[in-house]
Amino acid sequence: MFPALAPAHYTEAKMAYIVQRLLYGLVVIFFALTLAFLLAYVIGDPVLMYVGADAPAEVVAEYRRQLGFDRPVYVQYLEFMGGVLQGDLGQSYRQRAPVMPILLERLGYSAELAIPAIILAVVVSVPVGVLSAVRRNSLADYLARTGALVGQAAPSFWIGLMAIFFFASHLGWLPSSGRAPPGSDLLTRLSHMVMPVVILALMPLAYLTRIMRSSVLEVISEDYIRTARAKGLSERRVVIVHAVRNALIPYVTLLALQFGWILAGSMVIESVFAWPGMGRLLMDSIRLLDIPVIAAGLSMVAVIFVLLNLLADILYTVLDPRVSNK
To answer: According to the model, what pLDDT value does residue 123 have?
Structure first.
């Protein structure tokens, strides 16, 4: 199915490919951190945001000295990068606390929604996309395409509000918002997660279903698929063993990106359901102009996307050895 590669050559090519992608990722992270550092100077005076615009001049001068903003910009930049390497992303202007613990706590809360949401999207999108492709123009295909179109087009905040109205206010089956209090039993925690997880999964589910369908349709027209059928293999084996594996390559690309968006960019859903995740933290920080939190959050988003894309690149070399040989 794939051109043969010598084991030693394949291993060297794979490692070179992964190292190359890792270096690209480090460059992206470097520029993201640099933009995060410059963000404070673009928006306004960081010291005035920290102490307030009405603070006396001597107080402003003292805090400028304490926070290090009286030194040259390049010195501040080098100290900022040095702090990043040590896990120090500065102090929150509003909470007057280190940014890193705040972000990690909120990131954990976001992961409580993001991981179940992406698992749900994958579990549903793969079989639905494959079924839609192998039964093209059937009722199942039309239903799958219509559902994917609605999932992409419908605003998530509107779906969230309708879900709260119907399942929480009208039927009373689920809590309307918020994370379960600490120490709650499993059923209570799950009841608070059901609506935000399902709604968070809708858009990636729609995208992943469409890419899976189009990828399978492209693969099943290839010569090696016709050859496999001519050998007398069952249709199920042809589809699952030969078609789906090759169709997963573009699917993995989108999956990594969608998981990144879910984990780092779920501002709307977390706001609708009052979920204390990183998306809601960034939205509140933008509203309050808490620059260190915004800068650190955007940097963390960049790191998340780089790591996920690196993971996708590694999976490429497993799914298709030709990728690392290019």
So the answer is: 92
User: What is the pTM (predicted TM-score) of this model?
Assistant: 0.76
* Mean of pLDDT values over 151-170: 83
Q: What is the extent of the structural domain holding 301?
A: 7-325
**CATH number, domain containing residue 20:** 1.10.3720.10
Residue 173 burial by Cβ neighbours in a 10 Å radius (0-12, 13-18, 19+): exposed
With bands split at pLDDT 50, 70 and 90, how would you rate the model's confidence at 322?
A: low
Within 13 A of 176's CA, how many CA atoms are on the CB side? 10
- What is the domain count for the chain? 1
- Separation CA 287–CA 193 (nearest Å): 26
Give DSSP secondary structure letters for 42-108.
Answer: HH--HHHHHH-TTS-HHHHHHHHHHHTTTS-HHHHHHHHHHHHHTT---B-TTT-SBHHHHHHHHHH
d(CA 190, CA 197): 10
Whether residue 2 is contained in a domain is answered as no
Q: Is 31 domain-assigned?
A: yes
Among candidate residues 316, 27, 23, the one with its CA nearest the CA of residue 325:
316
pLDDT digits (tens, 9 = 90+) for 263-308: 765 777 888 888 888 888 888 887 777 778 888 888 888 888 788 8
